[in-house]
Design brief:
This protein has helices spanning about 15-25, 45-65, 85-95, 115-125, 140-155, 170-175, and strands spanning about 5-10, 35, 70-75, 110. By secondary structure, the chain is of the alpha/beta class. It has a 4-stranded parallel β-sheet. Strand 3 (about 70-75), helix 3 (about 85-95) and strand 4 form a beta-alpha-beta unit. Helix 1 (about 15-25) packs parallel to helix 5 (about 140-155). The N and C termini lie close together (about 5 Å).
């Protein structure tokens, strides 16, 4: 399978974008191949903003993918809920827009950290975390993103075995990013 020539990223905030950008860079994508959808203008409403734009992003992905190899990455926190709840909300957004559900062959990647992306960044840095605690107020998170992206790349390679401290939502993301291969 050939690599997508364009990757569109719908993310709820700058930390999600930073992790995805650096991960895609490790995959060999150039900056001009990656397009980030605008971030929400108000703080605290990122997940709702992504959910409201998801169907539109999928529709655009499907139109583009008829012309060129394209990928869509959706990065949205599960917050205090389960990852499956967020997946269901995304599926329901497609239903409301009269769009077919995401198929296994579509390069639509769902990255859904539980509780938030900071949980993943700290986990990828080797720090002990759980998926209940809110780590968004931890200092120094942004400085950990480059190393976290490299670790995510390593853990998601074929035949790689993530360590036992890897949280469940991050484990679930590994087959998701393999859709990009």
């Amino acid at each position: 399978m050939s690599r997508p020539s364009q990757v569109v990223v719908l993310a709820e905030d700058q930390r999600h974008q930073g992790l995805v950008r650096r991960y895609l860079s490790r995959l060999g994508h150039e900056r001009h191949e990656i397009r980030f959808e605008p971030l929400p203008s108000a703080r605290g409403c990122g997940e709702q903003w992504v959910r409201e734009r998801y169907a539109q992003a999928v529709r655009a992905y499907r139109e583009r993918s008829q012309r060129a190899k394209t990928a869509l990455i959706v990065a949205i926190d599960a917050d205090a809920g389960e990852v499956s709840r967020r997946v269901r909300q995304l599926r329901e957004a497609l239903e409301r827009a009269d769009l077919a559900a995401r198929t296994d062959v579509e390069v639509i990647v769902h990255l859904i950290p539980r509780r938030n992306v900071e949980t993943w960044i700290l986990c990828l840095d080797g720090q002990p975390v759980d998926e209940i605690t809110d780590y968004s107020g931890e200092g120094g998170i942004d400085g950990l993103i480059p190393r976290a992206a490299v670790t995510f790349f390593e853990w998601s390679r074929p035949n790689a075995t993530p360590p036992t401290h890897c949280v469940d939502s991050l484990l679930a993301a590994i087959p998701e990013v393999r859709r990009l291969d």
